[in-house]
Amino acid sequence: EECRKEQVSVLLGPGANQKRSPLCGRNFEFFSEDPVLSGEMAASLIRGVQSQGIGTSLKHFAANNQEKRRMTIDAIVDERALRETYLRAFEIAVKKGKPWTVMCAYNRLNGTYCSEHFDLLTKILREEWGFDGLVVSDWGAVSDRVLGVKAGEDLEMPGGCPVNDRRIIETVKKGELAIQDLDVVVTRITELILKAQASLQKWNQVLVITQKDQNNENISNRDDSSMTQHLLEEHHKLAIRVAEESAVLLKNEDNILPGNIEQKAIVIGPLAKIPRYQGAGSSKINPYQVDTPLEMLISAGLDPIYVDGYDYNGAIREDLVKEACEAVKDKDVVYLFAGLPDGLESEGFDRSSFSLPDNQNILIEAVTAVNPNVVVVLAVGAPVELPWKEKVKGILLTYLAGEGCGTAIANLLLGKAVPSGKLAETWPLKLEDVPSYHYFPGGNATVEYRESIYVGYKYYEAAGKEVSYPFGHGLSYTQFAYSNLSVEKESFDYGEPVTITFDVENRGKIAGKEIAFIFLGHKNETVFMPVKELKAFEAVRLEAGEKKTISIILESDAFGYYNTIIKDWYAESGEYTIFVGSSSADCRLAITITLHSKEQPQPDLRQVAPTYYQLGKGNFQVPDREFEALYGKSLPPTNRIVTRPFSHNNTIMEVNHTFVGKIIQKVAEHIVNKSTTGGTEDKAMMIAMIREMPFHSMVSSGGGMMTEIMLEGILDLLNGHYIRGIGKLLRKNKHK
Asked: Which one of 34, 74, 78, 138 is the catalytic residue?
């Protein structure tokens, strides 16, 4: 509705990339560590947005799972992991959601830029999955525009790059690019324009009709600002509901929550006054209003005292800790607001630490030593280490909860709303436990996905590794029971759907919402497999004492893995176990069924890659020769030596060891500091992006600040051709 109001035709989302490491700076934009969950959520968002006549842009296709060197890094992924883990969410979203556009990623994938990847953009996306929309580049993601056209990349963004326009014309004239290939791209762009125009025109007509009363008296002269105000107020109510339903109650010892307004309460932490409600980067928006938790708790009738307890910017202040410890001594409940402040996680760079700021951890340890009745309200965009989790009685995880966070938090803490969110990602005990720990963010040339399919709970369960909180974990103020799992038939042929049913009952005294997970497990002696994998999930709202029967249809392809020999999904004959429960670690029901399938050759790597079959409880590491056997070819160098001659594919970071490079970096940082109007987190993001942006992207996405001839001059200077370089920089014409 807001897009229509602003005449915006395509919303740049959803992001369906995998949460491979908790340190990825952009995890707050993505759904899950599980591709099925990500794909289903993305498909639902796409259908919802596009039902309103606004297009979506499913992104970032594909394997864009880190911010470090995202514009140049080469993601080395074995074929099975690519299909099952890193493409699966996109496949589900494309087939079920049918987005108007798909945005290709910055990075290389197995040696080829995603914007030039014919197999990715044409063979898989269009021919296999049936995508018939437009492929758009991420901003500045085009390395070679002509190769992009040939690969199926339709629209370069930001638009209006005369350099690449001219290259396309020249290659067509030379016969190096077929006019038919260009016609296909132009047709897709034109189709999107016509679709968008028709959609906006339709909705504008609907708006005019709704502005007439029953007597057909035109009231379209109603003050537009009051209509906008009403729209935003309704959306703010929705934002509150979203925040309430997505918050996750991680811990609730002694039923410390919900609290009540009669309690002697204290609120601690600047994040209660200045909430962290959104991430930094291109997703950042200007909210209609932001509810602050402290104000909303007071508005709800609570009469707390407030102390800072810690410095928002991270300084360790003993005086603030001492003040907080004195203030909590006689309190019934302590609401302590903690989290990652702005600037610690953002688009453009990855987190450097798995921890909360030290001053927050110090405060929590000190306060719990004085008063154990502590509830931590946690605002982060991704998992963090929780060294104090056994010492507090409650943890309410809000993630980055949007403009309605304050009201939602107050309602949840005081029992006006019931928590129902579940973790879409595992929270590990420590960073070293993460399977990608040794392989993130990689070298200056490649990042190797040596963990293969073992991402998130699939790894922790197979390795028998303890975690802080498992995938799917989330408590409620009521209790749910599962029973009566049954299957339509216990033996079936591959290709037949399987229908399962089970009951969920609310055995508590208040209404609540439960999310049930359906996992599938199968022991394959030849192929390494997870203990179980998510195949479906269902949310059900139940009144106190109410019981409902849930029916789920599992299609046969849910039973398979991607067989790299036959280049297709395959499930071998044998017994499969269906698990149903409240989380990956809390599966209360199970039933075994038998599958009959055509026998096919299967990849057997037991001798050449035994690590994948016998995961130990130590830190995950795979020898070079084993990953090479899984990958199927020689591994490219992880690091490259950057020396002269420098080219348009190099970055400022790669040349800042030179005198000219140092000057370029200083100038770039000065421009960012002068031109960026946002806060410190925005400037940090922009500086990180500029340092790692290839020079060619500065021309195409720089808005005219750098021309092609200027780039040639800079490269001449970097390569020691000083007179020629200065001459080009002094030329006034923008192009040759």
From this structure: 138
